[in-house]
Amino acid sequence: MQELHDAPLAPLTTFRLGGPATRLLTATTDAEVVAAVREADASGTPLLIIGGGSNLVIGDKGFDGTALRIATEGFTLSGTSLELAAGETWTDAVARTVEAGLAGIECLAGIPGSAGATPIQNVGAYGQEVSSTITEVVAYDRHTRETVTIPNAECSFSYRHSRFKAEPDRFVVLRVRFALEEAGGLSAPLAYPETARAMGVEQGERVPASAARETVLKLRAGKGMVLDPEDHDTWSAGSFFTNPILDAAAYGDFLARVRERLGPDVAPPAFPTGDGRTKTSAAWLIDRAGFTKGYGDGPARISTKHTLALTNRGGATTEDLLALAREVVAGVHAAFGVTLVNEPVTVGVSL
Asked: What is catalyzed by this enzyme (predicted)?
């Protein structure tokens, strides 16, 4: 297991921000992961788990403790059953399932990060979420000090949330298992209107899985959501804020503010969640509050391709990024009474 001291963490994140860790360990096997976690817990050393670094905002002072980078490998496909080691690159795994002619995660192509992070955030995009295909998660339980297998029903999946996110200091994901679909090389039914439109088909239709994947990659690239070292619009964590889900009272107040600010004929995006609540679009809120693409004049700005991404234009600090995020949160709340919540995990800092 590789060990470094006073190790820079910024290169391990897609934001390319953050100070150093007191110690950085890189684990390439499940046994090394468990051993490192047990050592940190036994000594009372603060522990930071790093996968692909695509969902981390690390403070400029860094991390006073042990950072553990999970770099395990393992892609095992048996029929329609898939097992991924936590350190596997997610977008590469998606490509391999499509090459195998299987459906279920093809519209999650291009999402940066590692496989182990996908159940934590219940990663989703373009009409698919990993919770619909995950069968179980193998994790090290820091409370019981043993490796456990948690079935889907016990993962408490919801929109961009899970049991693992709710208990961030308990579980360290080691492996993720999926049940995919053999559909003769076709995709799952397209659930997202934008994807269907881009492919010239009706929502709910199936298309070749490879074509669905390529379409999603093009859509994501157009929004700066596919990693490219030369494109500062991708020096981000993707969507920085989750889409707000409002109860009936809050949604009514929101609509009143929209009409007052934008006029009686303006209808914001609305997606009933089936429990009396309504999800609306964070990107719409940000844009209508005056934070348009490319907003900002410092080294941290809103993406020129998508209002939901905050970016490092080069030379930014984490404090630059947080100042922009706080400005956006305050502006949206002042305009619409809705408080945006950051999606990336913050380390040593907060909004």
From this structure: UDP-N-acetyl-alpha-D-muramate + NADP(+) = UDP-N-acetyl-3-O-(1-carboxyvinyl)-alpha-D-glucosamine + NADPH + H(+)
CATH class of the structural domain 2-70: alpha beta
Count the Cβ atoms, other than its own, within 10 Å of residue 256. Answer: 12
- Dig out the tokens for 129 from the structure: 């979420």
Same fold: 2-70 with 232-347: no
- How confident is the model over 213-272, as pLDDT tens digits? 999 999 999 999 999 999 999 999 999 999 999 999 999 999 999 999 999 999 999 999
H-state helical runs in 204-341: 209-222, 248-262, 282-288, 318-336
Q: Which residues are catalytic?
A: 160, 239, 343
Q: Residue 67 is encoded by which pair of tokens?
A: 């950072």
Does residue 274 carry a pLDDT above 90? Answer: no
**3-state percent helix, strand, coil for the chain, nearest multiple of 5:** 30, 25, 40
Q: Cα–Cα distance between 28 and 125 in angstroms, integer? A: 29
pLDDT at 121: 93
For domain 75-222, which architecture applies?
Answer: 2-Layer Sandwich (3.30)
Query: Where exactly are the structural domains of the chain?
Result: 2-70, 75-222, 232-347
Alpha-carbon distance of 255 to 14, in angstroms, equals: 36
Q: 76 and 154 in contact (C-beta within 8 Å)?
A: no
Q: Which fold has domain 232-347?
A: 3.90.78
